[in-house]
């Protein structure tokens, strides 16, 4: 911001109300947040009464953004530029999509001084590039100026991450026919149910578009028969039941093996201090169920329309 003669407005500790106040008071033109903080911003009670017309550019990184939140932000801000950055601490920026609403879910293409490819799961050779639409592990060239040299005194981590000059991120994704990258999650988060690989991000994006869903997180829970079953943890903003959400996912074309077999309504989705989703807490049962009186159990999706 100093280089271009701009002003950087920083909160010592993030507060949605204070962020909205500063946007209006400082006439902030650019916002750069993780998706969770954007969600909190547009769903805050003060948002509708806050003048955010100065904001013309949005950027996000740190996690995938659901289709529902992407649409909500586009409607709320009508930005001139909406950028998605995908990267890591190890190599900084991998890919950039400068028009995120154009193709929801896309992380775009390789940024300056880097190369990115999707390698089939289990492949040791980084040259074994996956076919368009084939999900695999995302690998990034490790020879650029922005790439790190390795993990401090962790040779076992280096051996796992580096293969013939490429850094294997541990992220899963695929490239479409246009060459745009789609990040589907972490290898550790992949749900293997009945021998099928299921990405939580795809299911979360589908459920996020339902008008009664405020937030959603999908994890795999242990199951004796299937190995793991798909479980959706939902924070509701309106009355909706599991059967309604199941019907909604089916109508959206979600395959049967990706449909949640368990739906849990929670008071909050657990997150880290910087707003990243903590799936492990959901798997371990460390969450607060929704209050029994939050929404009448007999209501359905029809009540919302």
TrEMBL record:
The AMP-dependent synthetase/ligase domain extends over 3-152
- InterPro entries, per the entry: AMP-bd_C (IPR025110), AMP-bd_C_sf (IPR045851), AMP-dep_synth/lig_dom (IPR000873), ANL_N_sf (IPR042099)
Q: AMP-binding enzyme C-terminal domain: which residues?
A: 202-276
Pfam families recorded: AMP-binding (PF00501), AMP-binding_C (PF13193)
Keywords on record: Ligase
Does Ligase show up as a keyword for this record?
yes
Which molecular function term from Gene Ontology is one that the record holds?
Answer: medium-chain fatty acid-CoA ligase activity
User: Which Gene3D superfamilies does this UniProt record tie to the protein?
Assistant: 3.30.300.30, N-terminal domain of ligase-like
Q: Which GO terms describe its biological process?
A: fatty acid metabolic process
Query: What family does the database annotate?
Result: Belongs to the ATP-dependent AMP-binding enzyme family.
Protein name listed in UniProt: AMP-dependent synthetase/ligase domain-containing protein
